[in-house]
Amino acid sequence: MILLLRNRATPEQLELLLQQHKFYIKTAVDIERRVLVGGGGLHADCEEKLLDDGSRQQDIWAASFMPLTRKIIYESMVNLRPRQNRKMEILDPNIRERVAQIIIEFLGNL
Question: Which of 43, 9, 29 is nearest to 98 (CA)?
């Protein structure tokens, strides 16, 4: 189930986010508005929900999160942009850190 979060997920919400892939959550994060969408079959599903909510494309970054290990994988087609990021993996360490902070704040330690 795709959920838009503006603050920390509840344990019940985390269970819903894990329904699609069982042990990891595909997310898209607006690093400026500090909004996270997770639970889609594709990162693009989460990106679309953020765009519908008013996010700007340049502020959206995608990653997958594994709650049990707290591992974050920063690879997604959503991150591939000619002007900002030339690979599927988020290359800018500052953007990676901002994405990680939001993911851990909203989904970690539950």
Answer: 29
pTM (predicted TM-score)? 0.96
What is the residue-level pLDDT of the chain in tens, covering all 110 positions?
999 999 999 999 999 999 999 999 999 999 999 999 999 999 999 999 999 999 999 999 999 999 999 999 999 999 999 999 999 999 999 999 999 999 999 999 76
Structure tokens that stand for 94 in this block: 């500052």
SS3 sequence of the chain: CCEEECCCCCHHHHHHHCCCCCCCEEEEEECCCCEEEECCCCHHHHHHHHHHCCCCHHHEEEEEEECCCCEEECECHHHCECCCECCCECCCHHHHHHHHHHHHHHHCCC
Q: Where are the domains of the chain?
A: 3-107
Rounded CA gap, 47 and 27, in Å?
A: 8
